[in-house]
Each structure stands twice: as C-alpha cells, then as structure tokens.
Design brief:
- The protein is α+β, with helices and mostly antiparallel strands.
- It is built from three helices and 13 strands, in the order βαββαββββββββββα.
- It folds into two domains: 2-103, Ribosomal Protein L25, Chain P (Beta Barrel); 107-204, RNA Polymerase Alpha Subunit, Chain A, domain 2.
- The strands form three sheets. The chain has a six-stranded mixed β-barrel. Strands 10-7-9-12 form a four-stranded mixed beta sheet, with no helix packed on it.
- Strand 4 and strand 5 form a beta hairpin.
C-alpha cells in the first residue's frame, strides 16, 4: 500500500467562516475513527492535497499519514473516505478521512484497471464495462492501490466476473462474486433493448 504524508492543522473555525480558510489556500476536512474520542476538524494545504490526489488515482488505496499540528505534532493514519467538489468550479471543497489502526483490518473501495485489448472488439464486438471498482477487506498495509484485469482473451459473449479477480495474499474481496466487471457484446445485443422499447410503444399506440 502506497503511503503519503500530509500536514494538517486542527481548526476551530466552522460553518460559513470556513469560506475564509479556502480563500487562504486551505481545505477543510474531518477525521473520523473509532479510536478517537470525537471527530477531529482539520484543515490541510490545498496545494499539497491536490498534488496527492492527482498523482494517486484520486487518493484511493492510499494510506495517509496525517501530521496533525495543534501546539505539538501527532500522527494519525487514515484512508480517504470522501472528497467533495464544488459543483461548477470542480475544485476540492471538503475532505473526510477514516482514521485506522495498522493492526486492524479495514474495508475499502479500490479501482479496477483494465489491461489489453479484447480480441472480440477486433471482430465487431463492443466492450462494456459494468464495474470499475470493488470493495475489499484487509490490513491497511496490504491494501492494493488497484486490481488489474487482463481482458485480452475476451471474445464476443465472454465476461469477467468479480470471482475471477486475482488479489494479493491477505486481501479478501467483499463485492459479490457473481457481479460482472466487463463483457463483450455484439452490436445487435446492445441495440435490442432500444428495439424492444420501440416495439412496446407501437403496441401501446
């Protein structure tokens, strides 16, 4: 599991006053954790956070070491739980972290990366991605940043399911095994639902 360090500061400012912090180049956030007496309100430097998010697949599958400064520095380990973006400007406006113990298993969502070119697409098939991430359970240090799936051998009519994934030792997939990750269909199969809908409309008329 990739690890990154991020400076953080305890904040007393809440509500509408947080807007001033954003103007000063800080992103508000909150740290949750069952080992904490109560959630900790934080701010982190926007430039540091954005650099991490853009270089680590959005921070998923990353172990954050938060260097929390409040008179003295204390370290907290955490994974990213949620990132909120401005609806129009698309910049980060708030972050939630889930504090963890390195000795306890966690559940996390990690992305699926498709590798190769499906052989079925070379003969007219259409590649359909149904699932682009899965939930896993493991110790924090065993959490993979992503799971790779080789789709090179997929022909028309073939599918890869969650149960087909190969994960590192110590990692358990929580997502149901029967769920489809990716499949190759014929153009006719993709158009069929639209044709059926049109036929139903004509029947109703």
């Amino acid at each position: 599991m990739e690890q990154v360090e991020l400076n953080a500061f305890v904040r007393d400012v809440k509500g509408k006053k947080v807007k001033r912090l954003r103007a000063e180049g800080y992103i508000p956030g909150i740290l949750y954790g069952k080992h904490l007496e109560e959630p900790v309100c934080l701010v982190v430097p926007e430039k540091e956070l954005v650099k991490i998010l853009t270089s680590t697949e959005g921070g998923r599958g990353i172990l954050f070491t938060l260097n929390i400064q409040n008179g003295e520095v204390r370290k907290e380990y955490a994974i990213l739980q949620d990132v909120q973006f401005h609806p129009t400007k698309l910049n980060v406006i708030h972050v939630d972290w889930h504090g963890i113990s390195l000795e306890e298993e966690i559940e996390a969502t990690i992305p699926i990366l498709l590798k190769g070119e499906a052989v079925g697409t070379k003969v007219g098939g259409i590649l359909e991605t149904v699932l682009d991430e899965v939930d896993v359970r493991c110790l924090p240090m065993n959490l993979p940043p992503h799971i790779e799936v080789d789709i090179s051998n997929l022909n028309i009519g073939d599918s890869i399911h969650v149960r087909d994934l190969v994960v590192p030792e110590g990692v358990t997939i929580v997502t149901p095994g029967e769920e489809v990750i990716v499949t190759v269909v014929t153009p006719e199969a993709e158009e069929a639902p639209a044709e059926e809908a049109q036929a139903q409309e004509e029947t109703q008329e």
